[in-house]
Amino acid sequence: MESYTIAQYVADIRAIASEETEDAKIGERIKPLSARLAADKSWFKDKYRKIDEEQGFGLHLLHEEDNHDLAVFVIAWGAGRGVSAHNHKTWAVVAGIEGQEHETNYERLDDHSEQGFADLKKTHAKTLYPGTAVCCLPEDIHAVFNDGQETAVSLHTYGHHLNHTGRSIFDVEAKTEKKMVVKIHE
Ligand SMILES: [Fe+2]
Question: Ligand 1 centre and the CA of 42: distance in Å?
Fold first, then answer.
């Protein structure tokens, strides 16, 4: 297959985001393209495997529009590291590049009325491998954990840059909700 560049991918996701109004449709149309870019790797750099030790993962920004829309990242997850339950407040498409990422999904049981409180219940879990892609809707809540022996790397595409959506991170045991901001490798 002909190589697929980040620039071509960005042009394709711009077209889809302008044609579709429903988040679910945007995600489903981007999914195969994201899997194609993840499989291509002609664009991939070794530095995308870098992890912020304190955070447990490394975010490498490949693209965002001037208004922070259409943010594309490579995220590297250290072996045995991950991120607790969180939402995105924007649509998301994730495609595996290397290694494996175990995803746990939750539903929210409370009515959002108490500031800082969230009651989550686990619904299902699955593992993402290279060659597969998954979509999330803005209010979906999931945790990601690298349950493999090596660094896991995946391609993440979001409707809006994650540090500009006002999203949350949850402590499932303590039943808390906090604002989530991540460190980015430029
Ligand atoms: Fe996520």
Answer: 25
Quick: pLDDT tens for 19-69.
999 999 999 999 999 999 999 989 999 999 999 999 999 999 999 999 999
- Calculate how far, in angstroms, residue 135's C-alpha sits from the geometric centre of ligand 1: 10
What is the CA(70)–ligand 1 centre distance, in A?
15
Q: How far is the CA of 72 from the centre of ligand 1 (A)?
A: 13
| Cα-to-centroid distance, 83 and ligand 1 (Å) | 8
Whether residue 185 lies inside any domain: the answer is no
Number of domains in the chain: 1
Bridge partners of 6, per DSSP, are none
- Identify residue 113 by its one-letter amino acid code: S
- Give the torsion through C-alpha atoms of 178, 179, 180, 181, to 10 deg: -140
pTM > 0.70: yes or no: yes
How far is Cα 64 from Cα 72, in angstroms, rounded to an integer? 6
Domain that holds residue 70: 6-179
Is the model's pLDDT at 155 over the cut of 90? yes
